[in-house]
Amino acid sequence: GQKSEINGLEVTLLKTRTTTGSSYNKAESGNTYILCQFEISNCTNKTVGISSLLCFSAYCDDYTADVSFNAIIEANGSLDGDIAPGKKMKGEIGFEIPKDWEELEIVFTPELWSSDSLTFVVNNK
Q1: Handedness of CA 6, 11, 17, 23 (dihedral sign)
Q2: Among residues 32, 75, 80, which one has the least CA distance to residue 54?
Q3: Residue 97: beta bridge partners?
């Protein structure tokens, strides 16, 4: 339920879920996939492009965590495409991380050459 605003975009981390994958798409031994569902609302007067690979990065227990294509296979909707003014996008981004993870920081940077970003923190209960 974390919600923040940046450059006219309202970004909300709705929920997270973990999975070890499916019978044909499994996380490596000792790892799990974490899928993070976001909603992005465009409150500007121009169309905004979102790319899961370019706009999102993460750190798991202070180590970099790359967007995982295998995790994204398990996702419900993607975070890729254009959002028209006044419209929304909802989808999941996925990372492969250790099963015993403690903290995941997800960084959203909507403009490639900007230093403006939002950081969402997820703790493993």
Answers
A1: negative
A2: 80
A3: 32
Q: In 32-47, which positions are buried (b, 16+ CB within 10 angstroms) versus exposed (e)?
A: bbbbbbbebbbeeeee
Phi-psi region of 5 (alpha: psi -120 to 50; beta: other; left: phi over 0): beta
48-67: pLDDT as tens digits: 999 999 999 999 999 999 88
* C-alpha distances in Å from residue 54, one per residue of 28, 58, 78, 98: 24, 12, 13, 23
Q: Which two tokens stand for residue 121?
A: 């923190």
In which band, very low, low, confident or very high, does the pLDDT at 43 lie, cut at 50, 70 and 90? very high
